[in-house]
Amino acid sequence: MSTPTTSPAEVAARPGAHRAGDEARTDGASARARRERRAAYLFMAPNLIGLTVFVAIPMLLSIVLAFFRVDGFGGYDFVGFANFERMFSDPYFLSSLGRTLLYLVVLVPGLFVSGLGLALLVRHKFPLVGFFRTALFAPNVVSLVVVALIWQFLLTDDVGFIARLLDRVGLTAPSWLGDPAFALPTVMVITIWFSMGYYMLIFLAGLQDIPREYYEVASIDGAGPWTTFRNITWPLLKPTSFFILLTSTIAVMTGGLDLLVILTGGGPANSTTLVIYYVYQQAFVYGEFGYAAAISSFLVLILLAWSALLFALTKGGRFTHAQ
Amino acid sequence: MPSDTAALPRPATRPPVAPGRRTSWRRRKSSTLFVVVGVITILTVFPLVWMVTSSFKGPDEVLSTDLLPSAPTVDNFEYVFSAAPFGRYLFNSFVVSATVTVVALFFHSMAAYALARLRFPGRDAIFLGIFSTLLVTAPVVLVPLFLVVHRLGLLNSYAGLILPAIFSAYGIFLLRQFYLAIPAELEEAAVLDGCGYWRIYWSIILPLSKSIFAALAVLFFLANWNAFLWPLVATTDSDLQVVQLGIASFQEQNTADWQYVLAAATVAAVPTLLAFAIFQRRIVESIKTSGLK
Amino acid sequence: MPSPPGHLPGLPPGPTSVERPSRRRFLGLSAALTGAVALPGLLSACGGSRTASASDPLQFWNFYAPAPNEDPVVMARAAWMQDTVDRWNAENEQQIELVYAPVLGSEKLATAFSAGEGPDIFLISPGDIARYLNGNVLAELTPYMTQEAVDDFFADNMATRMIGDKVYALPMEIEPLALYYSRPAFEQAGLSEGDLPATWDDLIAVSDRLVAAGQGGLVFPTAQDYYQNFVWYPWMWQGGGEVVTDGGRRSGFDSDGAVGALRLWKETVDLGLTPRVPPASNDIVTSFSEGYASIWQSGIWSIQDFERKAPDFDYGVIPLPVPDGGESATVLGGWAFAANAMGRNPDEAARFCAWALGSMDDDGIARVANWCIDAKRDVSPRRSSLEYGSRAGGYDGEHMRLFRDEIFPTGRGEPRYPPVIYKAVSDAIQSCQLAGGDPEDQAATAAQAIDAYLTTYEGVDLA
Questions:
Q1: Could you state, in order of their start, the residue ranges of all structural domains in chain A?
Q2: Does the distance separating the beta carbons of C44 and B153 come in below 8 Å?
Q3: Are the Cβ atoms of B159 and C304 closer than 8 angstroms?
Q4: Does the beta-carbon distance from A202 to B284 stay under 8 Å?
Q5: What ipTM score was computed for the predicted complex, to two decimals?
């Protein structure tokens, strides 16, 4: 990561670098380190307690659950690895995994590019920009029940708005949600439609985190938009991009359930049965919480490996050689 | 058309460049942006137009593919507020969402500050531990969470709706990423002045967090405002029902009243949109300095 | 989707033994884990827990009352529920409280039951009942009913709620399926009452004429769920097909009846007569009044939908057409009252269910009748109540009479199949209807999957 034109960027992009000299001082340093440590634990305490009780313990329990056969009525039988064994000979699960991979490969870059693109456009000042930002975010605030209904209306076979529109220009619209070949791509488009404003918002905040002087310096240096983006925006946006890349991967893999449940029910012919939907179905339709927990533990493992890789590549999301 | 004043940057940040050339270039850029963003916005918002226009339709045509109502009526809105305790639902959702948002911003930023700016043993391990709680899958964790909250005696209470929603690694992670980028010089100066860590957090970190707080406030509020599954599972008391459950109750078996669903959804969308409209300016305009000037 | 014979992947093995010593081990573990952090005095003071003493009112989770809004129909249903419970509460020490739980959220019921905190009384549909029966969570209602009362229920409709001669849930209504058609659409396509389809061939020909004349088509459900299977079964039964046959030992799915029904649903989509997604978000009233559909397979409940939303719309109802050489058949839906055997007071909960729907006194008979003619538009699940409802004029209307006299007698109760069997059938229907699957192959695949499951299945009778 190099920022050849602007030296301040280098400094800012390396937080913690200034502390290199601290290690040398020994006397007050150890007392200070103790104080710093105590402060850190106090700052984290409320969260650590709350996260443990309301997130970590339920999560651990759900992993424990993966080793049980659950009847859905309070009956739990320990079955060892049976649920995991069943997973890998389950064609429904394996095909849903393949589908999810495709979904991931399209959506994560799709959300990243659309979110960043919108943020770069609306970060500027121009007439009505506040209105545009709000409007672009608007799909996000509507409940997914209604999102599903809206798109059912727009995509209705033959008489729907989009079918009529295509008809006017001489094209025949497919059955967007009723044809197994089109259903998943349609769900992807709808997901990008209502999520892009969300990622736009986070990118906007991330762009705001970049000190304005850098752009002023670049502008005085006569740098064009692309050079400015490459040399200032992109490097300084890395912590945000890292955040978005990770959280959108997680969201795409473990979220979006409401839309699938209401809009497609995993169909037609299982074509939109993503892993998360399959987990939901096992848990709430079939009452197979143990099997659902095994699949979701597997998801946690994959995501953990993926996150660990990203963390390793980016020095813990710091992008610097922090100590 | 863009007006000159709106298109101009604020005087304080106007770069020292020949004013005439600069202005025309800015105007061109500004109108190009206006057109491009305008078109994207229209495409994005269009599907929502149907939601809004259909909420003014009668029950017999609410699901027709016609965009405009043949006989517009505000009956649906009147009904939503008079026949269902929708005001109560809005109040409950507001209490839960606002409380969670304020408390979560505070707690999360504290943890994020420690994780980003302080050094202590096990920092990366703790961060990874916190991060890994992001990987929960809702359908599977629901039953264990229910057991925990039940055990704590918090089912059917505001506390049961609020407490589990406060704690999430999401805000901690995002804030940490932002605090990582804060120039160290600002803190250094405070340390030299003999400020304690709380003082640094309170008077340096928090003021610098305005834009990201604004963004996160919108996201937290939205997430809780639209929460459905947890309130559904954790409450049976009708006085604790939240907006999304209220909307769902218009979708009774066999007799979905979509005109009410749409009217209720339109009403329910207003607070978050309003919050966004108010905060968006702050998200983009609170100018951060590098501290080097 | 091929699956290795003998093993049915993705789906649970048959239910295991009835008694489990380790039954509560997981719940115990969770209690220990949470107990450690529960700062009891501080936190438990904040809210009321549902685990309460036996003297607290029993909870009755339902999707009718307390009414979530003031629509007259919703109010009428809620009033019936409330009256029933009030009446019970006035006469009994064990009080009962109604809790509104939207049907949309079956997660609520599933979560509560998994946590061992299921409601004391709840509504259940036959599509889901096998799991509950095999989980031994339904309290037996027979001890609180007279034999006369048991016999008063239509036996065939009641069968799915029974094991042997023991009753585990009592139906509150019977909802048979039929074809609804739009008279304006028929007129505009130049069709008359004489053209109404009596056979599958007629059905295709008439739908074809409607679509060719620019009218809406024939709607079958296309979403992949329990409801689609439910709606599809009668088409299979008409040609003699069965999902499970031979006393529950093998599948009868690889049969002409099933293949024929799969082919019918496939053809109507392939010919462009049936939309791949039902128009107007699956709403029959809007679809008919806007001309998006002309024929629609639906239940008796649609009568009330038309009354509410388009009372002047002119529609007709006919029994489901039959294949050549086939026999008329339809399926009977409807929900039932059930009591949780692991609830706080299962005896009283069961007694309530039996009293509410199975009392032989005049009030009891009238209560069930009124639910089916005043609050809703259904066929009564009891002979005596159906007679009472008929005398009260509930079946005088053209459509109600047709449902009672011609459609209901050809009906079979909605079958109860465990998730594995449901899924095998659902895959076959989905594949043929929407994904170009071959009916014969799909029927064979499903039959194989069902057979494999039945070899290890232990639980309630499925045939």
A1: 25-57, 66-313
A2: yes
A3: no
A4: no
A5: 0.85
Give the CA count within 13 Å in the CB-facing half-sphere of B271: 22
Strands C315-318 and C250-251: unpaired
C9 touches chain A (CB under 8 A): yes
Q: To which CATH superfamily is domain C175-332+417-456 assigned? A: Periplasmic binding protein-like II (3.40.190.10)
CB contact under 8 A, B111 and A43: yes
Q: Tell me the per-residue pLDDT of C232-259, one tens digit each, with 9 for 90 and over.
A: 999 999 999 999 998 888 999 999 999 9
Q: B192 vs chain A: nearest CA distance in angstroms? A: 13
Residues lower than pLDDT 50 in chain C: 1-23, 37-52
Q: Say if B5 is an interface residue toward chain A (CB within 8 Å).
A: no
- Confirm or reject CATH 1.10.510.10 for domain C52-174+334-409, answering yes or no: no
Answer whether C52-174+334-409 and C175-332+417-456 agree in fold: yes
Domain assignment of residue B132, yes or no: yes
- Whether A208 and B283 lie within 8 Å, measured CB to CB: yes
Model confidence at A25, pLDDT cuts 50, 70, 90, reads low
**How far, CA to CA in Å, does A62 sit from each of B78, B129, C115, C136?**
44, 16, 12, 24
* pLDDT digits 0-9 by tens, A190-199: 999 999 999 9
For residue B263, give the chain A residue with the closest CA: A146
For residue C315, which phi and psi values (nearest 5 degrees)? -130, 160
Question: Would you say domain A66-313 falls under CATH 1.10.3720.10?
Answer: yes
Contact A91 C3 (CB under 8 A): yes
Instruction: Tell me which residue of C239, C219, C238 sits closest to C228, measured CA to CA.
Output: C219
Task: For chain A, positions 40-99, list CB contacts with chain B under 8 A.
Answer: 40-41, 43-44, 46-48, 50-51, 53-59, 61-62, 65
Chain C residue at shortest CA distance from B260: C69
List B residues 172-211 in contact with C (Cβ-Cβ < 8 A): none
Rg (CA), chain B: 24
Instruction: Compare CB distances from C69 to B64, B159, B250 and report the shortest one's residue.
Output: B250
Which of C38, C105, C117 is closest, CB to CB, to B152?
C38
**B252–C contact, CB cutoff 8 A:** yes
**Per-residue H/E/C for chain B:** CCCHHHHCCCHHHCCCCCHHHHHHHHHHHHHHHHHHHHHHHHHHHHHHHHHHHHCCCCCCCCCCCCCCCCCCCCHHHHHHHHCCCHHHHHHHHHHHHHHHHHHHHHHHHHHHHHHHHCCCCCHHHHHHHHHHHHHCCHHHHHHHHHHHHHHCCCCCCHHHHHHHHHCCHHHHHHHHHHHHCCCHHHHHHHHHCCCCHHHHHHHHHHHHCHHHHHHHHHHHHHHHHCCCHHHHHHCCCHHHCCHHHHHHCCCCCCCCCHHHHHHHHHHHHHHHHHHHHHHHHHHHHCCCCCCCC
Q: Do C427 and A270 touch (CB under 8 A)?
A: yes
Do the Cβ atoms of B229 and C107 come closer than 8 Å?
yes
The strand pairing partners of C317, in sequence order, are C180
Query: Is residue B258 one of the residues assigned to a domain?
Result: yes
Closest partner CB to B30 (pick from A126, A140, A317): A126
Radius of gyration, alpha carbons of chain A: 24
CA–CA gap between residue A267 and residue A281 (Å, rounded):
12
- What does the DSSP 8-state code read for residue C18? S
Query: Does the CB of B262 have a partner CB in chain A at under 8 Å?
Result: yes
Cβ atoms B65, A160 nearer than 8 A: yes
Q: Does B144 touch chain A (CB under 8 A)?
A: yes
The pLDDT tens digits of the residues spanning B212-265 come to 898 899 999 998 998 888 998 898 888 888 988 888 878 776 667 888 888 888
Number of domains in chain B: 1
Residue C225, token pair as written in the block: 């769920």
